[in-house]
Amino acid sequence: xxxxxxxxxxxxxxxxxxxxxxxxxxxxxxxxxxxxxxxxxxxxxxxxxxxxxxxxxxxxxxxxxxxxxxxxxxxxxxxxxxxxxxxxxxxxxxxxxxxxxxxxxxxxxxxxxxxxxxxxxxxxxxxxxxxxxxxxxxxxxxxxxxxxxxxxxxxxxxxxxxxxxxxxxxxxxxxxxxxxxxxxxxxxxxxxxxxxxxxxxxxxxxxxxxxxxxxxxxxxxxxxxxxxxxxxxxxxxxxxxxxxxxxxxxxxxxxxxxxxxxxxxxxxxxxxxxxxxxxxxxxxxxxxxxxxxxxxxxxxxxxxxxxxxxxxxxxxxxxxxxxxxxxxxxxxxxxxxxxxxxxxxxxxxxxxxxxxxxxxxxxxxxxxxxxxxxxxxxxxxxxxxxxxxxxxxxxxxxxxxxxxxxxxxxxxxxxxxxxxxxxxxxxxxxxxxxxxxxxxxxxxxxxxxxxxxxxxxxxxxxxxxxxxxxxxxxxxxxxxxxxxxxxxxxxxxxxxxxxxxxxxxxxxxxxxxxxxxxxxxxxxxxxxxxxxxxxxxxxxxxxxxxxxxxxxxxxxxxxx
Length: 560
What we know:
The protein is of the alpha/beta class.
C-alpha cells in the first residue's frame, strides 16, 4: 500500500505530505483543486514520463517521494536482479529539474525509468480519466488481455525474437531478388574493377610502407654521410669512445681508495661497452648500406600504380582490399545467382516455420486466457447490475501459408481481437464500442479492474472518476465493488458520487487557496462530522438541507 506521499513544487502544489491508510480512501474536492495532480504524482512514482512543465512556476526542481509497503515476491525478484536492498517497503523518489537532469531512486539506489517500471508493474494499477475510452478501440484489447501474464510475456518474447530472425532473412532474400538485374547489368564493370585491383596484389598499409622505403632510398647519401661521420667521431683517438675509456680508467684508480666510486665505474663500463657495440653496428650499416637505383625505380612505379587506383576508386589501400572482397561477392552473386537465391529462400522458409510455431503458441495461450477472462468478467459484471451480459473475445482468422507474406505477423503476434458483448437477453453479440453506453462502459472497465485486483496481488489500486456516467442505484453497485476490491487491496479513488464517498474508509479533501497572487493546493483529513457535511453537499449542492445531512449520516453509518 501507499503509506506516505510527499510532493514539492509540482504544478500548483508547493509542498504537501499525505499519509494514507489501508482500505478505501476517497479524494474529494472542487474541480481544479488538484485531485488529479495527486494521482499524477503517483503515476510518476510508478514510471510515467516526466517533463519540465510539471515544475511549479518560478521553481527549478520538483520532488515526488512515496513510501509503499508490499507483499509480492515478484517485486523482490526484480529488486534482487537490480541489486536493490529488499525490506518489504519501497521508497521511490523522483526529482524533475528544469535542466532536464531527472533523478530516480528506489530505496536510495539510482535506477532508470525502465528499471522503475519493472519494479512497479506488480505494485499498483492506476485508472486515469478517459482510460475507459480505451474500450472503444480494439487496438487496446490485446494489452488488456496480456496484462501482467508472465506466460504470455515469455511467449511474446520468443515470438519477437523469431520475428526478428524471419524479417532479417526475408530482407536478405528480397535484396537478392532486387539486386539480380542490377548485378547482371554491371557485371562487366565488376569484373574489370576486380581484375584491375586484384592484379596489384595489395597488402594492408602497403602504400605507407612504400612511402617509407622510397624516402629511405631517396635520402641514401645523407644517411651514408651521417653514419660515416658518426663512426669517425667514435673511432678517432680523441673521439668519444677513447674519452669515455680515459674517464673509466681514472675512476677505476680512485675506486681503489673509496668504494663509493664503484657505482660510477660500473656505469662507465656499461656506457663504454654500449658505445663500442654501437660503433660496430654503425660500421655494419656503412658496409651494407648499398644503393640500388633499380629498387628505387621499382618502388616508385609500384606506388604510382597504387595511387592511380586509389584515386580512381576514391579509396585507400585497406578500403580497396575490402572492396575487392565485395566485388568478388557481387560477381559470385551474378554468376551463381540460383544457388545464392536458393540458400536465401531456405533461410526464409526455416525462420518462417519457427515463427509460425511461436506465433501459434502465443495465440493458443491467449485463447486459453480469453476463455477464463470471459467467465470472470461476466461474474464481476453481474455484481455491477449487468446480469444479462454475454461477453466473448473473438480472434481473427489467420492463414499462415505464404512464407513471403510478412503482413500477418504483427509486433505482438498474429492476433487481432474484438470484445463482443450483448447486454440484453435475446440480442446478438455486437462489438463493445457499438453497444455499451458511457455508464455501462464504466462498469465493464471496473469489472476488468476487479479481475486484475484478484489475480495480480497489487498493493494499490487507483481509480480516477471510473464512475463517470453512473448515478442512482448503479452508483451504489460501483461503490460496493470498490469496497470489495478494498478488502484485499488499498484503493484510492477520485469520485464526485456521494455513494462512493460514503462507502470509503477514509476521506481526504483536496483544496486550493490563493495568496499573494499564487495558487496553493492543500489537504484536509475529514472527520466524521466533516464527511457528513461534505457528502450532504454532494447530495444537495450549495444549500445543504437537513434532509441531505441526515441522508449522508445514514449512508456513512451503514458502511462503518
